[in-house]
Amino acid sequence: MRTFLQEVVIQIDREYDTISDLIFVVPSKRAGLFLKKELLSFYSDRTFFAPQIYSIEDFIEEVSGLQGIDSIATLFEFYETYLTTYPEQQKESFENFSAWAQTLIHDFNEIDRYCVDHQDFFSYLSSIQDINHWYLQEKKTPLVKNYIQFWKSLHRYYQNFSEQLIKKNIGYQGLLYREAAAQIDTYAQQHSNTHIFLGFNALNNAEQHIFQYMLERNQATIFWDADNFFMENSYHEASLFLRNYKNSWGFYKKQPFNWMGEHFSQNKTFEIIGVPKNVGQAKYVGQLVSKIPKDALEQTAVVLADESLLLPTLNSLPDSIPALNITMGMPLKEAPIAAFFEYLFEFHKTAQQKGGYYKLINNIISAPAAFWLLGDQAAVIRNTIIKENLVYVSTTKLKDIVGDQKADIVELLFEPWNTVDSALSKCSTLIQLIKEKLDPELNALEIEYSYHFYVIFNKLKTLQSDFSHLTTIAALHRLYRDLLASETLDFKGEPFQGLQLMGMLESRCLDFETVILTSVNEGVLPAGKSSNSFIPFDLKKAYNLPTYKEKDAIYTYHFYRLLQRAKHIYLLYNTENEGVGGGEKSRFLHQLVLDTCPNHIVKEQVVTSNVPKIVNTARQFDKTADMLTAITKLADYGLSPSALTTYIRNPVDFYYRYVLGLTETDEVEETVAANTLGTVIHNTLENFYKPLEGEFLDEETIKEMISKIDSEVTAQFKLEYTALDIKAGKNLLIFEVAKRYILKFLKSELKQVKAGNQLKILFIEQSLKAKIDIPEIDSDIFIKGKVDRVDQLNGVTRIIDYKTGKVAKADVVLMGWEGLTDTYDNSKVIQVLAYALMQQKNGLLSTPFEAGIISFKNLKEGFLKFGTKQSVRGKTDYEITSETLEIYVEQLKKLIIEIFSTDIPFIEKEV
């Protein structure tokens, strides 16, 4: 296969005796690199001075005489113009200005690149806006007046902006093009060399003027990469621009149009492959590359239409590839250190007087960069925040946590950024410190990241020093993000060796025998309609500015030109509907099938991943000697009712928690958790009732408790949460709920006493432990627990368990003893009877007595007594006798024997 660049070099050799005086202009720097390679290859037996090779952007800068500036510098320069134009008007802050100014600068770019008469254009645009806001009322509102005035002001803004930049000898891209078109005569007189323009397609008006001017002066030759298949089909968008130049340029009325080849209709094999998900495409690319012979890899290109697939594709390529050249840079925003600075900005944008929010602090100290700076102290900070339940943490507190050794780092990270200058200074210092902490050999990549971030912050410092427009951290953050989005980390490699991995635009002028193209979906190829412009569609059409139709034609040309000389083409698209670039095949694929030439072989297939069938089997753990030892220790210490009911609910949870001793990770509680609410209520009632053990309740005592509810509940919350604000937000609601629960409970107690009932408090929060004799188990078995309350109501002894959750009567009434320990539904029964059994075995109570639950969410039901009955409609027996407890113990023994049995593993239950 002879590539386009090889054909150009051969033709140049025929037409020119020496190439050293020629000036080549190509679409991209990469194309210039490959042109240089072809020249060296063709003239390998000669020694000569290399000709000048410009990318089109560099050539335009040369012709215009202006120095190009990037989009961020353009934004600052435009804000200067905005402030000095119409100074009597109220001006927006830089942050608000930048939100709309970037779109306006983009429009200025288009107007200049297409050499539009700006005075006429802006007059037309303001008239359109005036008509859009026309209505019958004579007086317009101030808002509408300001809006229309803004559009009328655009021409002056544009004019002043252009003049200001030209005075400084700088310009944004569009201004460079307009100036180049204006200065081409001067340039042509100063540079009599022949210019070779090659591989271009969609030219703006400035480029068309420059190219035609040079052609007419006989100072240029243009080599187009056109194909007859597209040029002869008037409907085909791939040749939309080239057909127009061929038919409308005066030069081509008398000169041939070079070139129109017959490449696309040659022998080709197309494989159109649907792959689910973007990651699936990346994985399939790896499979395709692994099948290509090593000696064919240099003539193979993997082209990513969606450049966000770069990292997944790199991770999917086989290790067998001997060499790889990546033309795209990795976006710097993907570097781990980017997340660290993003967290820092978020923290300082939302800084509060009461301190930093713990989640933002945790984000920062969890980043690798924070570990490099703080070392083990990062974990100390995190653990202290959890232990002390700190929702907002001051810098002083953080310094106290880490001590003097790391206090300076904490200050750099968390001391408020009061000004933009201090923020930039601290960020630069952090970058320097990170670099010092890294090992040049082990952390070479991280050091490279750090250098690029150092450059970004230096650039921001320079802009702030020159212009001083940034006044808030939010504005700085926005600008930092814009800069970061445009920065890439370039890969090292030999540009002409091995597999080529590139983006769509890098493929201009380049040809490969095998092409693998990804993301051939609507919304990617072509990109579709996107309107980042203030210029209406009709006005664009009137002034021949590019619309989405022309942009689609550009994508069409790039797509087909890439395939023009290739022999083996793999076109991958995403079959899954996952937003932009998903689900719908590109129209190019449909067109390719319809436009098939006789020499083309087109295959279509959809591939799927080999997904193994996942069978959800319950987790199972056989009991080992070590497990039995742990269970024996637990039983000797005492099996709590909650441990027994945990086993009934899910044996695996019992295994994790009580055998292995695993607990859930502690987290900061911003709002009071349900279990903490229960603790507060239990502790409050304990403090109220503990002094009354052995006494009868009276009205005065209960009324005194009621008067102390607020202070006691507050004290209990402070014990649980030393730093939590319970006087605001959701916590205040929970605080009031706790008070309301206790108030309602005490009122129910007061009602009992007022009705003449004798209520005597026997025990409060009594810790008990009792032995259960199980001959089948060699070791001692104990159950233990804490009984919330034991009292006597009119001579009837009651064992009471408090529940802050909702419990119904049916939860504590048993229809039959068989299967008591088989279901978690009986957990409340198992619990209250365990307390009853411990009371009996410790000789504290004699049967009969009652046991049950007081549910704070169901206080209207009062004391929910345990009972048994023979049938649904049968009478309930609420007395707990020795016989009742004997039957209960038999059921309990079965459960404990099962826990100890080596024949019965811990098997997971669905919860």
Description:
It is a single chain. By secondary structure, the chain is α/β, with parallel strands linked by helices. It contains 35 helices and 28 strands. The strands form 9 sheets. A 7-stranded parallel β-sheet has the order 11-16-10-17-18-9-19. A 5-stranded mixed β-sheet has the order 21-22-23-25-26, with helices on both faces. A hairpin with an 8-residue loop joins β21 (759-772) and β22 (781-793). It is elongated and about 120 Å long. The chain starts with a helix and ends with a strand.
Beta-strand content:
5-15%
Walk across the major sheet and give the strand order: 11-16-10-17-18-9-19
Number of helices: 35
What level of helicity do the residues show? 40-55%
- Main β-sheet description: 7 strands, parallel
Quick one: how many beta strands?
Answer: 28
Shape label: elongated
Structural class: alpha/beta
Radius of gyration: 40 Å
Low-confidence stretches: none
Q: Overall mean pLDDT score?
A: 90
Beginning-to-end CA distance, first to last residue: 66 Å
Task: Give a quick rundown of the structure.
By secondary structure, the chain is of the alpha/beta class. The model has no long low-confidence stretch (mean pLDDT 90).
